[in-house]
Amino acid sequence: MAPARTVEDPYDWDSRVEAWEEVSATDAFRALRDRILEEAAPRSDERALDLGAGTGLLTRALAPRVASVAALDISEAMLERLDAKAAADGIPNIEVVAGDMRSLPFADEEFDLVVSNYAFHHLDDEAKELALAETRRVLRPGGRLVVVDMMFSLSLQPRDRRLVLSKIRAIAARGPAGILRIARNAGRLAMGNWEHPTSPETWEAMLLERRFEDVRVEVLQQEAGLATATRPVNTAAPGPESRRGAGA
Ligand SMILES: C[S@@+](CC[C@H](N)C(=O)[O-])C[C@H]1O[C@@H](n2cnc3c(N)ncnc32)[C@H](O)[C@@H]1O
Predict the structure, then answer these.
(1) Least crowded by CB within 10 Å, which of 87, 105, 143, 234?
(2) Pick from 134, 110, 140: which is nearest to 120 by CA?
(3) What is the pLDDT of residues 123-141, one digit of tens each?
(4) Which residues line ligand 1 (CB under 6 A)?
(5) What is the pTM (predicted TM-score) of this model?
(6) H/E element holding 6?
């Protein structure tokens, strides 16, 4: 099925499909996908949502285990690739939806399960709060959230320092192109236009503030972290003032 609507793609994700296909084919990313599936424990009668689905690493593995999956992404080119791969694999129950995680084009309480792999760090903290409020809105009471993302911050804490240094070393080892990339990233960081990884502690605080329960955050290998939470049974979605961060 063609993407359901057109959205702005200010970071030009459309041009990164091939690059992302390479990264998502690595053992490390397959292992993260498998960890999400294990934590999510999907059931065959459930409707699921994959936020920032990209070319479908996670969506395509999840689809055979649930009734249906909506794959949401801001990039229509990513979704076109996902759709083509799902068709080639004969997977019939994936609906691709072009949209922004900050404002989900879905009804209240539409999903039993929301998952996301390596997408939230593209949102700054305010945008993450919006996306989490929206996630809570579209989850049914008792519905589960499972997120894997970069979880560290640019602090002087030993784990953060180690991660940043090892990333810089890995990029520098690629020679002049790597050095150029470090310079470009330093420029983007200075302009406040870098990726926005958030520490495990902040993830936990954000989920509690959004009134999720069963909140658990676990540090995984390298910079990755896993966050799981449940929308409480018998509660309404937070109102607009809470979506802005009041956490009422
Ligand atoms: C690093 S890729 C991860 C893709 C996929 N989850 C996977 O594991 O292969 C991040 C994805 O998030 C999408 N994305 C970034 N910002 C977004 C936003 N505000 N709303 C929806 N998708 C977004 C990008 O288009 C991209 O496909």
Answers:
(1) 234
(2) 134
(3) 998 999 999 999 999 999 9
(4) 13, 20, 24, 52-54, 57-58, 72-75, 78, 100-102, 117-119, 122-123
(5) 0.84
(6) none
